[in-house]
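Ops channel
N.P.: pipeline sanity check, posting one input/output pair.
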């Protein structure tokens, strides 16, 4: 562990290199999840969310807390469960990336910065999906709930980072050299 982290819990040079590579890989994963056509994922069950508005080839879901507001209108229990799971996974979509960025970028290490950057990353994803739908008809749904769920994931990453730093410093304090 001492090769990856220094005594304060921050990443050491080797840990920084590894973390950069992991960030690049995870960014590729986010691109795969967020920007490929909706029907591209094999084995993924198709489900219909209530409240979706279609304007031409653009799909919008602009109702905040849609799963709660329109959950009773889901086509089936399975559709409702998939909608809840989708919200849950959106919370953790940006979590690993934001968690890594907290180690890599000192300016990210405040709650205000995390809220701002997580929201902006989420807004970029949703806006990009809208543009892709306009240009290529990829069938993505631009959801207002994704903005707050992704931002919440960033906030959870921030608190996890704070917990990591305290736990690591406590752990290294009691380790023998």
């Amino acid at each position: 562990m001492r090769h990856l982290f220094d005594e304060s819990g921050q990443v050491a040079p080797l840990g920084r290199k590894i973390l950069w590579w992991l960030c690049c890989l995870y960014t590729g994963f986010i691109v795969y999840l967020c920007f490929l056509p909706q029907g591209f994922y094999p084995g993924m069950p198709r489900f219909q969310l209530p409240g979706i508005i279609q304007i031409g080839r653009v799909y919008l879901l602009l109702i905040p807390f849609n799963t709660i507001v329109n959950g009773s209108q889901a086509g089936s229990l399975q559709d409702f469960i998939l909608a809840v799971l989708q919200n849950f996974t959106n919370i953790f979509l940006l979590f690993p990336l934001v968690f890594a960025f907290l180690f890599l970028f000192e300016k990210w290490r405040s709650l205000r910065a995390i809220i701002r950057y997580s929201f902006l990353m989420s807004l970029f994803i949703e806006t990009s999906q809208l543009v892709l739908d306009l240009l290529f008809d990829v069938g993505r749904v631009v959801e207002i709930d994704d903005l707050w769920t992704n931002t919440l994931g960033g906030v959870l990453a921030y608190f996890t980072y704070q917990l990591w730093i305290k736990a690591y410093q406590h752990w290294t304090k009691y380790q023998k050299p």
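N.P.: looks fine end to end. The chain has a mean pLDDT of 88.
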